[in-house]
Amino acid sequence: MEDLNPRSVLVTGSNRGIGLELVKQLVGKSNPPEWIFATCRDPEGPRAKDLKNLAARHQHRVQIIQLDTSDPSSIKAAAAKITERLNGAGLNLLFNNAGIVKESNMESETPEKMLEVYNVNVIGPMVMIQVFLPLLRKASQESALKGMSCSKAAIVNISSLCGSIADVLAWDIGQIPNYRCSKAALNMLTRCQSLRYAEDKILCIALHPGWLQTDMGNAPGTAPTTVEDGVKEILKTLAQLSEKETGTFVNWDGKPLPW
Ligand code: NDP
């Protein structure tokens, strides 16, 4: 089985939920990345306590960096710090994980909610890649690995099957047009990124993480899967991805999903 072996990783929204668990499991690997840039919007706030405790146990390897994905100047400031810490090396694996949803149905949806969610779930991931592209390109160029992989250079956009036009997951549980439309747009963004960055051998994927027990996952009722189990499977899937999957929408278990 292929191994997931990136030298450097960046996760957005890493202070809780899926993002925090990604950092936990990556640093707990037998061959952990040399650098894990655990980014979050408020590193000094109460919601970053668990991440801070984790980073304290893995000093140097887990580095907390302030990054609000809805603020391009914060993204640029984070990229400057990360470039400095990488000291000439590239960034192998970038998780656009940060995401929000606003409770709504077709009647109660508002332009304000639609815009706020689009800003975090779509514009954030777009600006992230524009800003971090030089580091992703560098990682791809300096890698001795053939083809495309998450160990070489990859963008993983954490999407949702709620954004699938063909599937429309869990409509009866929540209509949430702001969220569904934003994830459908994130899927299109992933496709566009894959077309543009194919020549750089940067793998681009939209991934449905499964319905996991996080603050967001539990909001409509208890999710069936623990975040520990879900992230374990996601990391196994990421290890298997190659140029065959770039520009596609994949499930947590690696199966292809309908747009
Ligand atoms: P949580 O609500 O538990 O965590 C969301 C994370 O995103 C938090 O760390 C939050 O930070 C961060 N965040 C929100 N806005 C911003 C921002 N502007 N800048 C930086 N960070 C931000 O959600 P999950 O962990 O469950 O979700 C992670 C991703 O997985 C999301 O994209 C979500 O849509 C997707 N997903 C989740 C599913 C599930 O069942 N859990 C199912 C399908 C998809 P803060 O603490 O500061 O608010």
From TrEMBL:
Show the coiled coil region(s): none
Q: Which InterPro entries match?
A: Fungal_SecMetab_SDRs, NAD(P)-bd_dom_sf, SDR_fam
GO cellular component terms given for this protein: cytoplasm
Gene3D superfamilies assigned: NAD(P)-binding Rossmann-like Domain
GO molecular function per UniProt: oxidoreductase activity
Q: Which domain of life is it from?
A: Eukaryota
Give one Pfam family: adh_short
Q: Which family does it belong to?
A: Belongs to the short-chain dehydrogenases/reductases (SDR) family.
* Protein name per its UniProtKB record: Uncharacterized protein LOC103065555
User: Which species does the entry assign this protein to?
Assistant: Python bivittatus (Burmese python)
Q: By which gene is this protein encoded? A: LOC103065555
